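A brief tutorial aside. Many learners find it easier to grasp structure tokens once they have seen a single protein encoded end to end. The record that follows does exactly this for IS3 family transposase. Read the sequence first, then the structure, and try to relate runs of similar tokens to stretches of the chain.
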Amino acid sequence: ATLEWVDWYNNRRLLASIGSIPPAEAEAAYYAQLEVMPMAA
């Protein structure tokens, strides 16, 4: 039961502070935008 809760907490719960999306989705979006940003000289 504990592992199910941890999975829910880390991957599926919705966080209002980050736009009502799951933490895993927010993390994926963060890393996706890093790949798109050009490097500064």
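Self-check: Residues 2-36 form one domain. If you spotted this yourself, you are ready for the next section.
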